[in-house]
Specification:
The protein is of the alpha/beta class. It contains 12 helices and 14 strands. Helix 5 crosses helix 12 and helix 10 crosses helix 12. The longest helix has 30 residues. The protein starts with a helix and ends in a 10-residue tail after the last helix.
Amino acid sequence: MSKSPINSSRRKHLKTSAKMLGFILFLGEAEIAWGAKILGVRIWPAEDYTRITMESDKALPITQQLLSNPDRLVVDVQGMELNSTLKDLVAKVKPNDPYVSQIRVGQFQPGMVRIVFDLKEPVKPQLFTLDPIAEYQYRMVLDLYPATPPDPLMELVKSSARKENALEKANEEIDLIAQFATKKEKEAPRAPVAQAIPDVKQPAAPAKQKRLITIAIDAGHGGEDPGAIGAMGSKEKNVVLSIAKRLRDKIDNDAYMRPFLTRDGDYFVPLHTRVQKARRVEADLFVSIHADAFIEPRAKGASVFALSQMGASSTTARWMANKENASDLIGGINIKTQDKQLANLLLDMSTTAQIKDSVQVGQSILKQIGGFAPLHKNKVEQASFAVLRAPDIPSILVETAFISNPQEEARLNDDAYQDRIAEAILRGIKDYFSKNPPVARRANA
């Protein structure tokens, strides 16, 4: 029986349509299996840890495997094909990265990319994902922590050993002078009262500095969290790090104080970790430096904030605290490892005395800044800033200016202004401790 030309043509059309439908279904499966688009790859090396971030338009299933001899970390990312953006990750490794020597990227199998991190030393990796927030979409975050983390207090003691020895020697000399003066006073015959010379004043005994004062300097934001961004593109994280380093250098030049930076480079430090660092080095004061933005671009002037347990002192203070407290979400915190119990403990332990001392030192610094720069408020404001919750350390947050104000943004990028801000903070600190000298530490503290 002969086939009809019409039926034959129809069957051919149906076959072609079926093939096209199959192709479309295949594309649909491919979109589900490996349709994710990589938007960017970033590496943030630091002594604390190295962070690797991959940003994509969809969430990606990831697995990891830690290997030794030699030390390396293998990460498999499902749902993607190797592309130029991923290959860029290889070139982003810096020679001074403390933990990563090189990265190798390859197509392990269809729909799966394998990334191998060759390591300089054993690490404790933390791998987690972040949902979209702010300007970011989905992020895969890999944090490489050293297997044996350094002790910040021991590092600080080593770096300030010469200053400690000089202070100890000076204190010994003062003790000898005091002992000699006491001995001479006992041995000297008492003169009659009538022969006393009332106008002659005895020289005051030299003051004794019992120990070095430790100042924890906290440059806000960093790494994945740029902080506020000005109209000219200035990033808060860069400006405040520059000011923090200037303050560090000034404190380092003082014979009776030593500085400690919670971050000394462009990397992210969670808010509770900043508090923990200050407590681990037994800081006498915690100063967090910022250059924030406000919804109103005309907002201007420097501010100083302290913690509040009773609500914010103003609407602006509440807005600022909420914005700063969101830093963890933007910077990227591993919720699974966050010690919620510790965070609650720090909040509960924050004392009235700590807040009172914080307001006092804040007012001293505000007075110094007001001597050359406009102030947003002429008194210390208070709000529930998470970074100020050290229970036993006076803690303040200094808003050096509004980076959202074009005039103040230009000022914040000026070396002279940055130096004056750092100098004002130092003078305020000295003024506070001259009136409130730190107590001697217990031997077992």
